[in-house]
Amino acid sequence: MLILDVLSPLLLLSILLPGYGCRAADIPEDTTSEFSVRLYQRLQAAGGQDNIIFSPLSVAVALGMVELGARGASLEEIRQAVGFSHLLPGVEFSLLQNLTAALLDDDSHYVIRFANSLFLQEGVTFNPEFLHLMKKYFRADVETVDFSESSAVAEQVNKWVENHTDSKIRALLSADDFSSVTRLTLVNAVYFRGSWKNQFRPENTRTFSFSRDDGSEVQTLMMYQQGDFYYGEFSDGSQEAGGVYQVLEMPYEGEDMSMMIVLPRQEVPLASLEPIIKAPLLEEWANNVKRQKVEVYLPRFKVEQKIDLKDTLQELGIKNIFTNNADLSAMTDVEDLYIGKAVQKAYLEVTEEGAEGAVGSGMIALTRTLVLYPQVMADHPFFFIIRNRRTGSILFMGRVMTPEIIDPNDHDFDSM
Ligand SMILES: *[C@@H]1O[C@H](CO)[C@@H](O)[C@H](O)[C@H]1NC(C)=O
Ligand SMILES: *[C@@H]1O[C@H](CO)[C@@H](O)[C@H](O)[C@H]1NC(C)=O
């Protein structure tokens, strides 16, 4: 019995700003948003009151790597679940390649690094065509390790991940994650760092109360600015979803990437809104937000999550690759190869301008009394996505139930 591990550590550091691009004819269109939303709904169902962060695009890329080595039901389940079944067989690899390439434009104002690597067991022979295609489509490095030396392998993989994620993801794996039956590990890391097009001024950041959905309050650092963003108010017409909610799209510098924040009304728990989130709705939001001046209150936040993709993907119909019946014969002639482990780790930090943005302790008074523009006050849980505005690719999706909590002893408390 052989085990194939798929690891998708993801890393994201962000600074924010808005930008616009229009889709040119040669720009690929991501077709995986349905899959992304289904993944989110599974995580939401399992997530209680926790923050959520994952990278749909990175999961799609990791699965693309597996699919490259798969045949039969193993291959078909992936195509179906991820949203490629309308494409001619094999076209999805070129699509994934183009979608990742679209993020790596030389003139981009942000940093995105996709780091894909395949760690092979010494002595196991992989199909040369498979290795060739891995390089071609996924720029995957291939390294040989001896999985029986589990501590050494864990260290090697962790170093690699660390190196490709600006040290934001450390100690992803431990020796326990490998055994003498492990033969292949796929590591997939994404690192993103962008600057907001309109940065928040650190001196406008102050302590603020954030109301969690369980009714408790925490003190957080709330950033503030008045600026031109993309904004809209939406309603699905049902009271269950809490009536009208706000969508704010804040581009990053260069305007190719943006963060979209979806905020229910103050008294409406995010859990009321989450069930209505569907792929077509993401599109509707993107198409209907309008450029205008908005007053934005957004907490600094840091979200991090390690996801067991094996459980989650099985719930979405990708089962075969995790069983003895897996057909990974395009990868190697070795029999009984299946995926024993699939993990993704994602990390996102949002600050005034970037991860290291300093926070001034001096506060300006924030006032709710005079509202000239629509006001987005994210002082309660919200949903977010970070997407490529040209291709629709969703780099990150998640929610903030609890932002970065500050120690009350460290800061001034100017209450509203
Ligand atoms: C990917 O880009 C190449 C080069 O522009 C193009 O030939 C190919 O058709 C694209 N593939 C897909 C699936 O869009
Ligand atoms: C880290 O990455 C750089 C460039 O990406 C590379 O030159 C270097 O060898 C890497 N170090 C390790 C330990 O992998």
UniProtKB/TrEMBL annotation:
BP GO terms, sorted: regulation of neuron projection development; thigmotaxis
Pfam families: Serpin
Name of the protein this chain belongs to: Serpin peptidase inhibitor, clade I (neuroserpin), member 1
Gene Ontology cellular-component terms listed: extracellular space
Compartments (UniProt record): Secreted
Keywords of this entry: Glycoprotein, Protease inhibitor, Secreted, Serine protease inhibitor, Signal
Residue ranges that the Swiss-Prot or TrEMBL entry lists as coiled coil: none
Start and end residues of each Serpin domain: 37-403
Taxonomic classification: Eukaryota, Metazoa, Chordata, Craniata, Vertebrata
GO molecular function: serine-type endopeptidase inhibitor activity
Signal peptide: 1-24
Family recorded in the similarity comment: Belongs to the serpin family.
